[in-house]
Amino acid sequence: MAQGTRDPNYADSINYGKSQELTNMITSNAHAFAGGPAIASKLGNETVKAELGRAAWKLFHTTFARFPDKPTKEESSMLLAYIHLFQRLYPCGECATHFGEILDQYPPQVSSRSTAAAWGCHVHNEVNKSLMKPIFDCSDIGDFYDCGCAEDADENETTTTAKTHAAREATT
Ligand SMILES: Cc1cc2nc3c(=O)[nH]c(=O)nc-3n(C[C@H](O)[C@H](O)[C@H](O)COP(=O)(O)OP(=O)(O)OC[C@H]3O[C@@H](n4cnc5c(N)ncnc54)[C@H](O)[C@@H]3O)c2cc1C
After folding, report:
1. Domain at 145, CATH number
2. Is the CB of 160 under 6 A from ligand 1?
3. Could you identify which of 25, 29, 143, 145 might form a hypothetical disulfide with 65, taking C-beta atoms 3.0 to 4.6 angstroms apart as the criterion?
4. For the whole model, what pTM was predicted?
5. Is the CB of 84 under 6 A from ligand 1?
6. From the CA of 107, how far away is ligand 1's center (Å)?
7. Higher pLDDT, 2 or 96
C-alpha cells in the first residue's frame, strides 16, 4: 500500500475526516492540558527507568531541534499541548509528577526552535540537578541535537505535505 494511504480494512475509533476539528480543539485548548495528575503508575525498575529516560530525552530534544524557527501560532500551540501531554502520560509516574512540578515552575517556551531548545535543555538540567547528575552546557544544544536530517532540503517537502493534507481535508 502506498505510504500515507489508509488501509480501508483498518477499523479504528478515530474519524480522520474530523482531523481539522481535532487540530482546532488541541490548538485552542493547549493550556488546558497543563497540570493534573500523572497517568502512569510508579515505575520501580531502575534500569528500565534510566533506559526510558535516555530515549525520552532524545525524542524530547530532537523534537525541539526540528521545530520550525518561525512557527505558526498553530504549530506553537501543538508543541505546547505535546509537552503537557508528554508530561502527563510519561510512563514513569513518579517522574511525571516530578516533571509536572518543574513545568509549573518553568512553563514551556514554544515561540521558536531556539527558545524551545533552550527551555528543553533547562528543564532537563532541573531533572539532572534533582538526580545529582552533571549539568549540561546549554550553549551547545543546537549542535548536540543536530540530527543531520537534511532539514533545509526537507522544509519545502514538509510544507508541501502539509498543504496536500489541508487540500485533502477540504475535499472530505
Ligand atoms: C521527563 C523526565 C523526567 C524524569 N524524571 C526522573 C525522576 O524523577 N527520577 C528518576 O530517577 N529518573 C527520572 N528520569 C530519567 C532521568 O532523567 C535519566 O534519563 C536517567 O537517569 C538516565 O540518565 P543518564 O545519566 O543516562 O542521562 P540522561 O539524563 O538520560 O541524558 C541523556 C543524554 O542527554 C544529554 N543531556 C544531559 N543533560 C542534558 C540537557 N540538560 N539538555 C540536553 N541534553 C542533555 C547527555 O548527553 C546525556 O548523556 C526522567 C526522565 C524524563 C524524560
Report:
1. 1.20.120.310
2. no
3. 145
4. 0.86
5. no
6. 19
7. 96
